[in-house]
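OP here, attaching both records as promised.
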Amino acid sequence: MATSQLTASSISARSLASFEGLRPLNGKFGSPAAVSLVSHRSFRGLFVKAATTVAPKYTSIKPLGDRVLVKIHSVEEKTGGGILLPTTAQTKPQGGEVVAVGEGKTIGKTKVGISVQTGAEVVYSKYAGTEVEFNGTKHLILKDDDIVGILETDDAKDLKPLNDRVLIKVAEAEQKTAGGLLLTEASKEKPSIGEVIAVGPGTLDEEGNKKPLSISPGSTVLYSKYAGNDFKGKDGSEYIALRASDVIAILS
């Protein structure tokens, strides 16, 4: 069966979405690059999610239920040393300011309010919510449960977890193998062990009452490898915020 081929110059950023199944020939791109069209199934997760623009005639957004409206902090375009970052190196911001909250939700016979207040600086799950552009600024409408914690400083170690979230300081990777060989940075495996720094107030039971977490600060724990949101502290230490259910064991 014949294979359709295109050169890199014939593909623009605007038309890239039309080729969700693009894959390089022979495992790499040449110059000019040749690509073959393959099954759409291979790149099912590759997509661009655009923000919904709210027309100027609307002057306010009121979240409903247990939803929160967050004004997204702008993407860092420079490093701390002032070096401009290419677009590919700029990470999606995961923090912002709460500008409006819903009325909460009802569990059983208990009315449960929103866990954050207007003006709070929060960190949220990476792929949560619906992005909207309002008054020329990007916002996010997300559920209260998608907010990881409150961060009032610019240091990850000060994160105050919400609900069932836990903040963990990740243990340093092993520098040597069991036989004493030094490991390169690329071969060091990211550990899934760390010390609990802070815990949220707990989960809600079927009646809407708070149920404290069974994990306490100071504990050394083992957690699921691909869970949570990663952060780096000002001192270079790595942290992760995840749900208590992703902690699988306490080490002693």
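Record two, same layout:
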Amino acid sequence: MYGKSPSRAGLLLLGIQLTAFWPIAAVEIYTSQALEAVNGTDVRLKCTFSSFAPVGDALTVTWNFRPRDGGPEQFVFYYHVDPFKPMSGRFKDRVVWDGNPERYDVSIILWKLQFDDNGTYTCQVKNPPDVDGLIGEIRLSVVHTVRFSEIYFLALAIGSACALMVIIVIVVVLVQHFRKKRWAERAHKVVEIKPKEEERLNQEKKVSIYLEDTD
């Protein structure tokens, strides 16, 4: 009796330790969190994950939708070995699988956006034995036109600065080219004038000698 107690205590302690370390192996979900798209267009809802367990046939992916105006949660998409599209509801014939589990990508594409598609899309991944973890969320806003964000303005500013630098470099190169050309033309003129000047001096010298001889 006493010989079994330590083994039971050891198993209990091991179980407690495994329970304590298990959350570390939970599935982690990565999404864009917030997304803006134009009405009538298609949008890719990107969702990737990480898991300590190898990806196999036990992997399941569930996409759901919570309307911004409230109401019950709605089914969007399900994946288990093969994709399963919704057979009815608002997302019928409007959602397709665009993921690759081997690359830890479980994204979907939503076609022909409508204004009532505004809301939160949730992405839940289970990869046994990793079944715990937070559910990824994407808050989708369907708008008439996409508003420029700070990133767009930053990209525009960087692009303008690069274009300005290119223009400055081109101007500097052209100025140096024309200066060199002008200097070359001046040097050529000097070379042409010098022989003429020497010829004139020689003529004057000859005339001077002739006059001296005449005297």
